[in-house]
Amino acid sequence: MSVMDNVMTTATSKDWAGGECFAVLPVGSFEQHGEFLPLVTDSLIAGAIAERVSREYDLLLLPPLTFSCSHEHAAYPGTVSISAESLIAIIGDVAASLRRSGIDRLAIVNGHGGNYVLSNVVQTANADGRRMTLFPARFDWNAARDAAGLTSTSTEDMHAGELEVSLLLHLHPSLVGSTYSQWDHSSGPRPHLLTAGVAGYSESGVIGQPSLGTAEKGAAILNSLTKSFKDHLALF
């Protein structure tokens, strides 16, 4: 599978005409993932999940948003962020444009944990009727971790660790640097993450155990998330 398979949809206007009125929007990031994963890691993961669920459930796939709220990674080279206000505006504009095309339901597939504001966006959108869902939720990620037999917990495995390395080894192994197993780092509690950023807890930018990642775990994670999405669809 090429990188582009998870990044861009090749659908035409004809494919969208009169189709399912449920679209899927992957939201990633462009931020540091240590020295061994690409800056687009979260975008590739979000794109892969979105492509898989759109194909499995016959939904309309949108191309990913690559820039989002990565301010906690600002100390590391290559990270590019947009403000929370900008992300809110983009999601709102996309949703409004879709509604003009007769598509009134939107699943946001979020690949970056720092996009806290997306929860508020979805809550607001659903105040007058169910229009959006945010996926994967924490319980979806936890179920996927259990299904894949991940060793680390979600607290220990915050960034560029077992989960993300496993997914990239499964999806795009050529993009995983050969030294990934040498960068394990445990930060312990991170009570001031919003103030100090990731740099306050990790010199390398890694918080987790990338050495535990395997392609097999990555495949199991993706399979579990695909199954979990069915419960989100059932709410509409």
The total of helices stands at 8
Percent of residues in helices comes to 25-40%
Which residue ranges are poorly predicted, with pLDDT under 50 across at least 5 consecutive positions?
none
Number of domains: 1
Q: Strand order within the widest sheet?
A: 2-1-3-4
What is Rg?
A: 17 Å
CATH architectural name: 3-Layer(aba) Sandwich
CATH class: Alpha Beta
Strand content: 5-15%
The average pLDDT is 95
Which sheet architecture does the biggest sheet show? 4 strands, parallel
Number of strands: 4
Reported by name, the CATH topology is Rossmann fold
Class from secondary-structure proportions: alpha/beta
Apparent shape? globular
User: How far do the termini sit from each other?
Assistant: 32 Å
CATH superfamily: Creatininase
Walkthrough of the structure:
With 236 residues, the protein is α/β, with parallel strands linked by helices. The chain has one domain: 3-Layer(aba) Sandwich (Rossmann fold). It has eight helices and four strands, in the order αβαβαβαβαααα. The chain has helices spanning 13-16, 41-57, 84-100, 117-125, 138-148, 162-171, 193-196, 215-233, and strands spanning 22-27, 60-61, 105-110, 132-135. It has a four-stranded parallel sheet, sandwiched between helices. α2 links the parallel β1 and β2. The chain is globular and about 50 Å long. The protein starts with 12 loop residues before the first helix and ends with a helix.
